[in-house]
Amino acid sequence: MTATLGRERRPLSELKSAIRAQVTGRAAELTGLSRRIHAHPETAFTEHRAAEWCAGALREAGFAVEAPAYGLDTAFAASVGSGPLTVAIACEYDALPGLGHACGHNLIAAAGVGAALGLAPFADELGLTVRVLGTPAEERGAGKALMLEAGAFDGVDAAMMVHPCPFEMADFRSFALGTLNVTYTGRSAHPSLNPHEGRNAADALTVAQVALGLLRQQLPPEWRVHGITTGAGTAPNAIPARATAEYEIRALAAEDLRELRERVEACFRAGALATGCEVLLERPEPDYLDFRGDPELIALWTANSRALGRAEPVERPPFACTDMGNVSHAVPSIHPVLDISGGSCGPHEEEFAEAAVSPAAEQALLDGAVAMAWTAADFADAKSGVADAKSGLADTTSGMPGVESGATGGA
Known about the structure:
The chain has 411 residues and is an alpha/beta fold. The protein has helices spanning 12-25, 27-39, 48-60, 105-119, 123-126, 143-149, 201-215, 254-275, 295-307, 324-328, 350-355, 359-382, 384-397, and strands at residues 3-4, 7-8, 64-66, 76-80, 85-91, 128-134, 158-160, 163-165, 176-185, 224-231, 242-251, 278-282, 333-334, 337-339. Helix 1 (12-25) packs antiparallel against helix 12 (359-382), helix 4 crosses helix 12 (359-382) and helix 9 packs across helix 12.
């Protein structure tokens, strides 16, 4: 047994059994939380009830809670333990416009809360500080990217979350995603009386879309460009003075995304040049970077998932985007996915919203909570030498000028 924070630690197997008992003992509470969030869907940056329900459950369990946090009204930060190693657990809870929780974020939130509650009584014994972050606006807005920039993940040694899916996957991979809002401004005129005095903003957008269609032939097969026209005139007897569109671009890596953005923006500028209009190109949110899972954490998760009897993970190429990718570029991270539908439906489908409150989904919720907590415990055990060194350094610097007594790794 290893001495941690001045006390003897029980065998890891005993601690993991106790962690599982903590989670399963709160099964009704956790599934109730999931169902409540599911029944009251809130879209990006409006998740006031979901954030408060999650933060409230942690506050009642003795966590120190800050809400709102990091400059976002629907973000929160909760912490427990004072160990030198800090593990962050991300809770997503935003819904899709018109589709509710068809991405299953109600399960992500409840599983994150469950993992934290399972770890809480044993955090100091494991040498952990457990930080739970309520992360709004994953579907649109890149909440985690904003929180990362604001310092939410400072001092974190490992970050994790789980996501529902139609299959099991440990080594999750994602595209990098960029968004682009396009506004063309031209000059209105009568299409019969004086069309030569007009500058057709809708034509500018058409030129750009033709250019994009031709560009696709020259793009690598993994790169994606897709979007919609959101405005292109109000009446056929007036040359449109304004046209707008929203586009997304995707690539396998952040480096590729930068090149793709340059080429796509050139197409939109071509539309303006060809028609004599002006174009405004705006980024409504930070880029979503590609997710890069940490091999050590993936191996720990895989072993724990198997121990719980989950299906064997599959390997798949990137198929989605997440702002957890931004976190993975800064902190060792995992983002495993858990099967809740048996392949019958997938995220962003109406049927998946129904699947997100099914018995299979609620079993995945509890398994995900236990497996995350176990993975955090295994990580702490594997890093116990590093933790002891950090703890010893804190002891030796205690009382020194400029060093606060009792400081630990958590920010």
